[in-house]
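>> Question from a student workshop board

For tomorrow's exercise we were told to take the sequence and the ligand below, predict the bound structure, and bring the output to class. My setup keeps failing. Could a helper post the expected result so I can at least see what it should look like? The ligand is iron/sulfur cluster.
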Amino acid sequence: MEAVEILEERKVSIGRGKEGAGIRCDKNSVSGSVSQRACVYCGARVVLNPITDAFHIVHGPIGCASYTWDIRGSLSSGSELYRQSFSTDLREEDIVFGGTEKLTRAIDEAAEQYHPRLIFIYATCIVGVIGDDVEAVCRAAEKRHAIRVIPVKSPGFSGNKSFGYRMACNAIMELIRPHALPVGNAGRGVNILGDFNLAGEIWIIANYLKALGIPVVSTVTGDASYETLIRAPGAKLNLVQCAGSMTYLARRMEEEMGIPYIKVSFFGIGDTSSSLLRIAEALGDEPAREKAEAFCRKQEAALQPLVERYLPHLRGKKAAVYVGGGFKAISLIRQFTSLGMETVVVGTQTGQKEDYEIIGSLVGDDAVVLDDATPAELASFMREKGADILVGGVKERPLAYKLGIAFCDHNHERKHALAGYEGTAHFMREIHLSMNSPVWQFL
Ligand code: SF4
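>> Workshop helper replied:
Here is what the output should look like for this input. Compare the format with yours to find the bug.
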């Protein structure tokens, strides 16, 4: 396979080694370049869909509603309502005459049959084109049914996936703002922002915090419900895990509610331990910090024999990483380094300048760093660098398999946890089995 010819406008989004720190990022995709990113609506849905007792109505053609729980396997300890997908199924006639009546009927039917306390209405591309007044419909429905009906302004063409995250965060703020405490009334405990409870990961992290005596006030949005979300303004500290989607919400909560935030990561032994210690320190909770030190030492020691078992199978291998946010990419680079592996290609869909600065400082001089990659670019660089495994999501999986490269799903569809100490054990096992599978010799 020959090296791909990079579009002139894309060259500034790709760098080698330390140059990666200064690549163009956080911008709309280049026209004519096939992006691996999803649209604005998908970005918003990805954040809000895990709210378990919310009713999610997609106002648009039925195709947009194909984004369902099935491709976002977050788990619930309560309601299963979020696993349904509802659409106004806009047709040609609705495009001509407007879709607000249909939307009103859909909300009324949902409210009368299912009695949810919270409904999200997602505006898709066509709604942005025909100009349905979704906000007015939501306001009227809130009065009629005495529940929250919140518009999510997410026409697919109105920006990039990051903009969709922002629209979802605005919807969450609209929900929780009426429950804010007066600024200066410091709450207790923490909110976990940007964990979507894939394979129950939020329960793993909450258990660690419980062991340190730190209460979890609310989770945004994994395993969340209307009742737990409105408690979020009562926390003392926000923990931002998926920085790409949740830093905006954390900043707004800091500015408008006085709740500070720190970024944390629970991918890999080092990042898990340092995050737990930093949380206790940020809370100014000395007993929790002492407990964290002992807890982390114990967990690390328990995992060490497994690390030693996998190390000989992993050492010297080369990894490519293409994930949603920059913070996860950083954790993965550190995790691979700790396992004796080299990250030779690394990219993200929504990484920020500060993420790429860290990435540039972590990778080797010749590693390829790229933002908003096309499949052709990814394939070409993985071949050039001789990657043994690609870590990515659903859209990257076929790419790896077509190239005969091992793959590890680190995104929405997986069924096993990759966070925390338990997740690290799963991760080592998965990448070992995938890279060292005998199947590759038959290619
Ligand atoms: S909102 Fe637009 S880009 Fe997104 S899925 Fe619907 S039609 Fe496609």
